[in-house]
Task: inverse folding
């Protein structure tokens, strides 16, 4: 009753921010992401009748009570489905900093969903896995798949209505790159979960944000279909700015950016004016993800290497979906 | 036919951003400001029949053709009203950096309106001066008055409908301070004029921004009336964040902040959590204006003095309206 899985993190090009069903993690809007080949989580799960409690060792650390309880509740979903009641030992490692806006929960719950169901003797379809992973963390529904992935918003109260599907696989556009720029390893102040609930409840802009998503999704899907990089980058950057503008106007205001985030955002605009075709996207943390094509990668890396405030960069292509290892 | 005037700059606590009548400079929303005692413009105007062209010397510099033409058109309003057609020599000095988000046009056009009308032999009422100054720069309508000032939005096409009035004079709340923090002396990339037109035309959030102004104005007026500083600070900071969120979502995105702006914004939130009661407001430039009361001023100055990225700070109280000198 043991299995291990690897799942890649994903980065949303059209963002998810806000739940219409907090119990089922069903979002107000559909979102679109690319799964990344260089940021991943490896998780092993063993159900064992001799254990009296679940044990979670994540990045060599024991979890807090609230994290432990959240993970145990997630395993209960698997146990109930498999008809077992054994406790589990879960060991999980990210190859990148946790909870710093690098989508660790997307790869984490996708890997856990796959490893836990397999260890429990279940064989879920990708769609079933996506629905299960969603209940651990919304963005994890997308990391079940590789390449370019759409997560359908579905309906509140209807568990099976909200899941991800693959639009294009990881080999579709090999020239497309996401350069993850790591500015700072600190944990962020406000979790995505608390931040999005607060934004939905208090930002006067939240409904407008939602009202613009369908057009952004249409533009991004068209850009992907025709491999029109400029349209993709413009749409993704604008969608990111709208999400952060909505966060900024929550009460209290949520500012996930730090000074280096803004410095890099402004440099990216400047570089673009100098014909280096790069766009940014930023999630609920300070890190900046730069979108570019292979043709501009070396010039971009040279520019980034001259910036003293950058700790590390990770050049990603589209990666594969969650798999057993 | 010569006169000199001094006018103080003002800082909006409820912001002006966007014109419903670009010819008359009539705004979409009413705004509320405090006139500052330490940032001012002194302007002298002489109409002289021997001049063949208007001459403008502003901070010891000759103006560009477009700036020259804008200023000459403003003087034409005065000449038409006075029934004269002499050209003028205008000498104007700010005691602070121009066009860096420090509201130089507010004090500049208020001083010019007063000096030019007086030199032309006119004696305008404060209301008439406010209407005239507005046509040079919207925020200048407020700098005609001292203390706390409200600029009524009025109606498009109706010149006399949009003017400022004084809510409380400069002696009303002596403990109230605005600490202007100068981070950078560079001129901003996008003028307020271009930035606001672009925001109105392209931001999906612009209408929501407008829809929230009346409540912000009501809250701020109540806070002022009862000298409730926390309510004033919270309302002003939220209003500022909404304006910047609206700018961020214009196409192209307008980011008036720089890295130091964001660093200081985050520190201000942190200091507030440590019971230093300070709030920020930011205009169309990187500088940060910190709102506080006398009781916290020394602690605030000590904190600011420890920050290496600050070039200068100017501690302001509410100042007087435009006057002849």
Result:
């Amino acid at each position: 009753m043991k299995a291990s899985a690897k799942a890649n993190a994903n980065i949303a090009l059209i963002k998810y921010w806000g739940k219409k069903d907090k119990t089922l993690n069903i979002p107000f809007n559909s979102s679109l992401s690319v799964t990344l080949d260089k940021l991943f989580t490896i998780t092993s799960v063993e159900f064992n009748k001799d254990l009296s409690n679940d044990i979670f060792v994540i990045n060599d650390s024991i979890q807090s009570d609230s994290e432990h309880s959240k993970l145990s509740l997630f395993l209960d979903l698997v146990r109930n489905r498999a008809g077992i009641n054994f406790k589990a030992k879960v060991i999980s490692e990210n190859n990148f900093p946790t909870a710093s806006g690098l989508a660790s929960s997307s790869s984490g719950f996708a890997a856990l969903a796959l490893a836990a169901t397999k260890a429990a003797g279940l064989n879920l379809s990708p769609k079933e896995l996506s629905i299960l992973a969603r209940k651990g963390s919304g963005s994890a529904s997308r990391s079940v798949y590789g390449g370019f992935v759409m997560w359908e918003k579905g309906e509140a109260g209807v568990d099976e209505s909200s899941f991800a599907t693959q639009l294009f696989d990881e080999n579709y556009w090999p020239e497309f790159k996401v350069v993850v720029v790591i500015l700072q390893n600190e944990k962020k102040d406000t979790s995505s979960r608390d931040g999005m609930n607060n934004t939905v409840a208090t930002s006067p802009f939240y409904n407008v944000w939602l009202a613009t998503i369908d057009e952004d999704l249409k533009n991004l899907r068209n850009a992907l279909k025709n491999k029109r990089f400029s349209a993709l980058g413009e749409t993704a950057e604008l969608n990111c700015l709208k999400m952060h503008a909505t966060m900024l106007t929550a009460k209290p205001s949520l500012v996930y950016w730090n000074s280096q985030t803004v410095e890099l955002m402004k440099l990216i605009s400047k570089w673009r004016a100098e014909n280096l075709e790069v766009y940014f996207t930023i999630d609920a943390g300070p890190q900046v993800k730069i979108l570019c094509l292979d043709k501009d990668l070396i010039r971009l890396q040279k520019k980034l290497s001259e910036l003293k405030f950058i700790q590390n960069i990770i050049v990603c292509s589209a990666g594969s979906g969650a798999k057993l290892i």
In short: The radius of gyration of chain A is 19 Å. Chain A has a mean pLDDT of 94. Chain A is about 40% helix and 25% strand. The longest helix of chain A spans residues 229-248.
